[in-house]
Amino acid sequence: MDVEGIKKKPPPNSLSVWPFARRPMERVHVDFFEYKGKHVLLMVDAFSKKIWTQLMNTDTTTSKSLAILYGWFCTESGPPTTLVSDNGPQFTAHDFRDKMKLWNIKHV
Q1: With CB atoms 3.0 to 4.6 Å apart as the test, which of 19, 45, 78, 99 could cross-link to 50 if both were Cys?
Q2: Nearest-angstrom CA–CA distance, 90 and 86
Q3: Range in 18-27, 40-49, 53-62 the model is least confident about
Q4: Can you give the pLDDT at residue 59?
């Protein structure tokens, strides 16, 4: 008990911190955002902090995401060892998970 009979709140859970990347393309973080009504794919290399963006002409579908990821991003920079995303539908679809396994990319 604290002053005036009010319980102290327990300390908040500590935030999880990613380990430092040791080389380019070891870990890439990816997400979608909307800008002026358009969907944009954002990718950031954890080592170099290099940022890639790609305007998506249609809704962010799984097949479009895969085509962009492999056809444009991986051919330019090589496939990442680990790809980090949220649990958006583009990243949880079977097509996406299957391609990550095929391309030997660990998806977190």
Answers
A1: 45
A2: 9
A3: 53-62
A4: 64
Convert 31-54 to b/e letters by CB count within 10 Å (16 or more is b).
Answer: ebeeeeeebebebbbbeeeeebeb
Q: In what order do the strands lie in the sheet with 106-107?
A: 51-56, 38-45, 27-35, 82-84, 106-107
Measured CA angle at 63 (ends 76, 45), to 5 deg: 35
Measured CA angle at 48 (ends 44, 52), to 5 deg: 30
Q: What is the CATH number of domain 20-107?
A: 3.30.420.10
Q: Where are the domains of the chain?
A: 20-107
| Residue 30 near residue 53 (C-beta atoms within 8 A) | no
